Structures are given as structure tokens and as C-alpha cells.
Recover the amino acids of this structure.
């Protein structure tokens, strides 16, 4: 089973793809990176680019499931949540059009699953992913580490459920 983890953004969207083979408890990292959206373009243009890039990624790697970070909004920055909601909507649409099951994971649950601490810093996440995926260096930018962590958390949960 392949899980595509996505850390949504309107400038940089991180993605990580892990594979969980039958009888295997620990997923294997297949691919990770970022989708860079053109800055200084309209939100509509960036959303269209995000959709096209996600569709190509899903076609190339054929995930069986998509895991995406839940939307979190700080009361001081409601506009950020609204804008991020647009990116999440495009991600959900791309997955739904391919009939892929979608998991919504809170960032605190992902951080706790990967580092043991639900409020881990970006650097702590990068180092944890480097160690757990046996990488030569921490994934960069941090959006990549976050996306890998989302995919790993989802795949590990599925393994525990026997899926």
C-alpha cells in the first residue's frame, strides 16, 4: 500500500510517499519533495497549478491513500486558515477524483507519533525523519519532513489496524 502524505501550502506544498508491504510494520520512503507554486500570481492560478502538479504526482506514483494535515487556525490569524483551506480543498478534490481514501491528521498527532512530543519544532521533525528514514541529511525545506511524517503516521496506523 502506498500512502501520499501532503503538507498543504499556497507557495510550497510538501509531499512524501511511503510504501507499506504486506507483513511489514515499518513503511519505506519512496519519494519526497515539494511542489513550488509561482509566487506573485493570483490564488486562482496557484490553486490550478497545485491541482495539476498533484494530478501528475498521483498519476506517476499511484498512491492507494492520501493523508493530509488537518487545518489549524490561530485565532489571531484567521485569514491564514481561510487561505490554507483553499489549498486543502484542491488536495481533497484531486484525491477524491481518483477515489482515494483520505486521512485527515492533526499536526500535533503527527509530531507526537514521529518525535514523541506533540509540539516539536520544525528542526526536531527534520532530524526525526532523517533518522527514521535513514537519510544522509535532514529533509529540506521543513515542508518535506512534515509531509513524510504525515505519510509515515498514516501508514503506521494502517499497519496497526492490519490494513
Amino acid at each position: 500500500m502506498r500512502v501520499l502524505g501532503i503538507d498543504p501550502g499556497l507557495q510550497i506544498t510538501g509531499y512524501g510517499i511511503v510504501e507499506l508491504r504486506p507483513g511489514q510494520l515499518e513503511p519505506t520512503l519512496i519519494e519526497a519533495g515539494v511542489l513550488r507554486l509561482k509566487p506573485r500570481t493570483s490564488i486562482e492560478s496557484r490553486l490550478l497549478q497545485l491541482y495539476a502538479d498533484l494530478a501528475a504526482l498521483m498519476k506517476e506514483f499511484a498512491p492507494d491513500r492520501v493523508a493530509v494535515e488537518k487545518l489549524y487556525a490561530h485565532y489571531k490569524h484567521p485569514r491564514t486558515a481561510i487561505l490554507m483551506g483553499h489549498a486543502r480543498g484542491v488536495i481533497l478534490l484531486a484525491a477524491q477524483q481518483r477515489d482515494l481514501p483520505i486521512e485527515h491528521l492533526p499536526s500535533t498527532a503527527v509530531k507526537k507519533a514521529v518525535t514523541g512530543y506533540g509540539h516539536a519544532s520544525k528542526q526536531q521533525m527534520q532530524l526525526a525523519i532523517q533518522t527514521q528514514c535513514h537519510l544522509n541529511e535532514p529533509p529540506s525545506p521543513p515542508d518535506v519532513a512534515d509531509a513524510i511524517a504525515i505519510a509515515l503516521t498514516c501508514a503506521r496506523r494502517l499497519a496497526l489496524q492490519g490494513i
The chain has one domain: 2-161. Residues 78-97 form the longest helix (20 residues). Helices lie at 43-61, 78-97, 107-115, 122-132, 142-161.
